[in-house]
UniProtKB/TrEMBL annotation:
<protein>
    <submittedName>
        <fullName>Uncharacterized protein</fullName>
    </submittedName>
</protein>
<feature type="compositionally biased region" description="Pro residues">
    <location>
        <begin position="71"/>
        <end position="80"/>
    </location>
</feature>
<feature type="region of interest" description="Disordered">
    <location>
        <begin position="1"/>
        <end position="87"/>
    </location>
</feature>
<feature type="compositionally biased region" description="Basic residues">
    <location>
        <begin position="7"/>
        <end position="17"/>
    </location>
</feature>
<feature type="compositionally biased region" description="Low complexity">
    <location>
        <begin position="30"/>
        <end position="41"/>
    </location>
</feature>
Length: 331
């Protein structure tokens, strides 16, 4: 009895929105919910016309209060006046340097390669009526920055390679949990009451927070800053760490007929991951196990499972554990 089946249906009375289509592996065609027309969005045009950190309507829903950029104030020309053509242009345009950022015809959701800026924005501002999807959009034709980072004039903050496998496993868990938000008309109804739904939301948030602890601990331990290039010696020693972790990988083979989620699980197994001795490892491992336990409780709380005997509960738990996309982390 996989929770994918048991988790389908509607949460009556909560007014939750429609869930996006099926989980998206990195190499398959994007679903409509993961592709956004850029051409039709005048907000994007506004956002991309300047490299100054202007407030972007397109990014408004994902910008946190503490990080809201303030519009740049017009600069005052020096008393002696501009002495170059560029200076004259700056004086005439109020100091805002115009720079076009060519956009893709469509924007793609960075499904498994989200940047940590968008991750944290999501952690703080998730609209829980929708499924847990980290809103990191790739819309630049040649720019490496995601939409939000471009609008804030920041560089993206990728997950460090030494724990990239864990980031992908986190994505696998989020994809696996999406059906709990499935609001499509369906014969199967998974009716979570508000309290149980609140537990699910908390479990997801704790999971994300656990990954954040792992990332911070990993960076501190190996002396790598968030978005700055590390010193040569630090970069070299970190590369050795990553190299060592690559040697420990035990990739899961991809087989014909595997679901997209299982292919993503297999893909994750080809990337380096956290080690037991990593700072933050235990917080992350605990968060994963706690999330899985919470799901067992949530599934068992369905009316049809009322009055489960102990052996039946054990079987239900075993089924959920078997279907869970991430293997046990040692704790
Ligand atoms: Zn992003
Ligand atoms: Zn970014």
């Amino acid at each position: 009895m996989p929770p994918r089946g048991t988790g389908r249906g509607r949460g009556r009375g909560r007014g939750r929105g429609k869930a996006p289509a099926a989980p998206a592996p990195p190499s398959r065609s994007p679903t409509p919910s993961e592709v956004e027309s850029v051409i039709s969005s005048s907000d994007d045009e506004q956002e991309e016309t300047s490299s100054a950190p202007e407030f972007s309507p397109a990014a408004r829903s994902v910008i946190t209060g503490s990080e809201t950029p303030t519009p740049s104030a017009p600069s005052t020309p020096t008393p002696s006046g501009p002495t170059s053509l560029a200076g004259l242009r700056r004086a005439l345009t109020g100091g805002v340097r115009k720079k076009n950022r060519p956009l893709r015809p469509v924007a793609y959701l960075r499904h498994v390669a989200w940047c940590m800026h968008c991750f944290r924005t999501f952690l703080e501002n998730w609209d829980t009526s929708g499924p847990p999807v980290i809103p990191c959009w790739d819309d630049g034709l040649s720019s490496k920055r995601c939409r939000q980072c471009a609008s804030r004039n920041k560089n993206c903050e990728p997950v460090n390679e030494g724990i990239l496998g864990d980031a992908m496993r986190l994505q696998c868990i989020l994809d696996w949990a999406k059906p709990f938000w499935d609001n499509e008309d369906d014969n199967e109804v998974f009716d979570l009451d508000n309290a149980v739904f609140g537990d699910l939301v908390q479990a997801v948030q704790a999971l994300l927070a656990g990954f954040n602890v792992l990332l911070d601990g990993h960076r501190k331990q190996f002396g790598i800053a968030s978005d700055k290039k590390p010193a040569k010696d630090i970069a070299k020693s970190y590369e050795a760490v990553v190299h060592n972790r690559r040697g420990l990988l035990q990739p899961i083979p991809v087989t014909v007929g595997m679901s997209s989620l299982r292919r993503l699980v297999a893909e994750a197994s080809t990337y380096p991951g956290a080690r037991l001795s990593d700072d933050g490892y235990h917080a992350w491992a605990f968060a994963v196990r706690t999330f899985r336990s919470a799901v067992v409780e949530i599934v068992a709380s369905q009316e049809k499972y009322d009055n489960l005997s102990n052996p039946q509960y054990d079987q239900l738990e075993a089924d959920v554990v078997k279907d869970f996309p991430v293997e046990d982390y040692l704790v």
